[in-house]
């Protein structure tokens, strides 16, 4: 089994303690950070499918998520500092009622590497908290809202509408996450949508330029 396959298997098995070492070994073997990240994302897809099929449960999903987060920590320096431009501050969070943070953190990492300062509000962020962060932080040019649950799409809509009706200007709103589509994004009044972390960074720059 190659190191990258080992990373994939151990993330799926939720072996968080083994992951930092394995990810480092996979990098040392010459695998790109991007390919290791892709392998871990695939593991989470498998975990999700097994959850849907009733083959594993919330604790196992949580362990796999912890394992992936450990791996992302090792990969983060490999994505950092690719841009010399400064596009202002991006306030990012997962919308109210939603605890999923891996995708949001990947998006944050990629937007940061594109040249934004990041204010990461975490998960289960209320519309009021997003708004407060726009008011309290300097030079907010972008608000990024992530959501993974179909049940939290109303919270995403409320967040976008709260921001857009606040009277505050100078920032754009980008939304994303598995249940979000370009059509949904447009229908709730967001300025932009991206299907994955890489394209979120590209879209972010496009929106604020
Ligand atoms: Co949950 N969960 N979960 N879960 N979980 C999903 C999302 C699910 C699809 C699993 C399934 O049923 N197959 C399902 C949602 C179904 C639906 O709504 N349609 C689900 C469910 C049902 C639940 C619970 C309700 C389960 C329960 O309690 N019965 C519960 C809800 C808790 C809550 O939030 N209130 C729950 C809980 C959890 C854990 C806490 C155990 C854990 C999360 C831990 C954590 O994040 N720290 C967890 C996990 C791990 C998953 C799966 C397995 C993996 C999610 C993940 O990290 N993916 C997931 C199944 C799946 O994704 N296939 C599942 C990897 C990540 C890189 O991808 O987050 O999609 P993703 O991000 C991508 C894109 O979506 C996009 O870019 C990212 C990277 O390219 N993107 C953006 C994300 N945000 C973006 C923002 C942007 C742009 C792009 O612009 C701002």
Automatic annotation (TrEMBL):
* Keyword Metal-binding on entry: yes
GO function term, MF aspect, one? metal ion binding
Q: Known Pfam families for this protein?
A: B12-binding, B12-binding_2
Q: Where is the B12-binding N-terminal domain?
A: 1-87
The record ties this protein, via SUPFAM superfamilies, to: Cobalamin (vitamin B12)-binding domain (SSF52242), Methionine synthase domain (SSF47644)
Entry keyword annotation includes DNA-binding: no
Record's keyword terms, sorted? Cobalt, Metal-binding
Q: Cellular component per GO?
A: cytosol
Instruction: Give every B12-binding domain span.
Output: 87-209
Q: List, alphabetically, the CDD domains matched.
A: corrinoid_protein_B12-BD (cd02070)
GO BP term, example: tetrahydrofolate metabolic process
* Protein name, per record: Putative cobalamin binding protein
Q: Which organism is it from?
A: Desulfosporosinus acidiphilus (strain DSM 22704 / JCM 16185 / SJ4)
